[in-house]
């Protein structure tokens, strides 16, 4: 028998060294897998709820990128399986849109949106595990076919008298005055309380309690772009204007005495003889504001209900005091002795003048040269009624309490 050969019929008493190591490794791996499997069963399959997507779901209507969206009833934000925690809506100028959440899951604006305006919406909701879901969208509202604007006075950069209100006349009758007025702001420096009042459905005026102080800077901001002033009719206007209050000049016409006292900055600077409205055509009483100035104009009685009683083509130095036709103006056709002695006009206040208005020394020429749009002319002791606040810019013929009350 050769050395190193196994003995025939002999039995192995144990595994080889390499086979034993492999068996041990397999056993350890089986134990490890079994242990891990048992741990997964205890956790219910290994799902971590904190790492699952939110079930809240956020829906924004209209869809992202939508055009020609209606300004009323189209915008809604909702969560199908959660509650809304934040909804922010802004227009393209960064102005927020106020809204209301119903039932915790539905948000809608409390008012109408603006036409021809781009809005962005950011909304967040949470589910019952407090997991968040967010959504963003932008959309643009419709471009209107029917529009309106406000024609305002005074003009930007103008220097005016202390009685000048801010007056805005709209090109269409307004049926939602509150919404339109929200788009208009009048401020002053130095600051004073200012209130607006509507006359009819197409005029909105603003004034302080008393005449403006000289030197006041007044600013009018109009932001009516996309504002629905009446069903289907939208504003298109954005304006920023400012004007300055000049020196104070208030002139008082005493119809009984047939003279006018001109007071500037609290001091009387001139007394002028006048002729006011005669019997049956008396001049209104009250505080009247100069709203227009014309070096020469035509005055035709037919335009103010006097038929063919007069038609003067070249009335000099005319300044309008009312919409209904009251002026303070130069008069060359009455004898000079009329002024200060007889009331003979059709309701206007006449000052002596020369035909053509070329003589700067006449009372009418002097008063015209020394008057501003917005100066006040007060008439007293006439046998007529007090002029209505809306007849011209004569807003001072209403108490502050009534002005602010809107009634």
TrEMBL record:
InterPro entries xref list: Big_10 (IPR041280), FHA_dom (IPR000253), LD-transpeptidase (IPR050979), LD_TPept_cat_dom (IPR005490), Transpep_catalytic_dom (IPR038063)
Keyword field contains Transferase: yes
Keywords: Acyltransferase, Cell shape, Cell wall biogenesis/degradation, Peptidoglycan synthesis, Transferase
Pathway given in the UniProt record: Cell wall biogenesis; peptidoglycan biosynthesis
Active site: 329, 348
Source domain of life: Bacteria
Presence of the UniProt keyword Acyltransferase in the record: yes
Positions of the UniProt region annotated as Disordered: 39-66
Biased composition (Basic and acidic residues): 39-51
Name of a matching Pfam family: YkuD
Residue ranges constituting the FHA domain according to the UniProt record: 243-333
Domain L,D-TPase catalytic span(s) in chain numbering: 249-380
PANTHER family for the chain: L,D-TRANSPEPTIDASE (PTHR30582), L,D-TRANSPEPTIDASE YCIB-RELATED (PTHR30582:SF2)
Protein name: Ig-like domain-containing protein
């Amino acid at each position: 028998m050769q050395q190193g050969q196994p003995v025939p019929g002999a039995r192995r008493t144990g595994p080889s060294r390499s086979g034993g190591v492999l068996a041990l490794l397999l056993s350890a791996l089986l134990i490890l897998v079994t242990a891990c499997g048992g741990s997964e069963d205890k956790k219910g399959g290994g799902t971590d709820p904190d790492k699952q997507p939110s079930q809240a779901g956020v829906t924004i209507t209209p869809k992202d990128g939508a055009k020609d969206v209606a300004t009323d009833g189209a915008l809604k934000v909702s969560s199908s399986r959660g509650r809304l925690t934040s909804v922010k809506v802004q227009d393209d100028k960064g102005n927020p849109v106020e809204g209301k959440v119903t039932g915790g899951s539905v948000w809608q604006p409390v008012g109408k949106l603006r036409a021809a305006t781009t809005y962005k919406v950011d909304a967040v909701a949470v589910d019952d595990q407090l997991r968040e879901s967010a959504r963003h969208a932008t959309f643009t509202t419709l471009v209107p076919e029917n529009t309106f604007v406000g024609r305002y006075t005074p003009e930007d950069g103008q220097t005016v008298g202390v009685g000048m209100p801010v007056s805005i006349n709209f090109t269409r009758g307004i049926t939602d005055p509150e919404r339109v007025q929200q788009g208009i702001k009048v401020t002053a420096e130095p600051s004073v309380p200012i209130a607006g009042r509507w006359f009819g459905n197409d005029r909105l005026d603003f004034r302080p309690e008393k005449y403006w102080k000289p030197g006041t800077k007044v600013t009018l901001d109009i932001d009516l772009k996309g504002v629905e002033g009446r069903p289907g009719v939208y504003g298109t206007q954005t304006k920023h204007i400012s004007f300055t209050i000049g020196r104070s000049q208030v002139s008082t016409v005493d119809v009984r005495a047939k003279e006018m006292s001109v007071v500037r900055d609290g001091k009387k600077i001139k007394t002028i003889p006048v002729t006011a409205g005669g019997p049956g055509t008396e001049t209104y009483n009250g505080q009247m504001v100069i709203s227009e100035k014309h070096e020469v104009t035509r005055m035709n009685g037919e335009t103010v209900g006097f038929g063919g009683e007069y038609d003067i083509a070249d009335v000099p130095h005319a300044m309008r005091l009312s919409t209904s036709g009251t002026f303070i103006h130069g008069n060359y056709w009455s004898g000079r002795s009329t002024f200060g002695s007889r009331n003979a006009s059709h309701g206007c206040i006449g000052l002596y003048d020369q035909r053509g208005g070329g003589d700067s020394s006449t009372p009418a020429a002097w008063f015209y040269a020394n008057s501003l749009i917005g100066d006040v002319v007060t008439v007293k002791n006439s046998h007529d009624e007090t002029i209505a606040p809306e007849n011209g810019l004569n807003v001072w013929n209403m108490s502050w309490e009534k002005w602010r009350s809107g009634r």
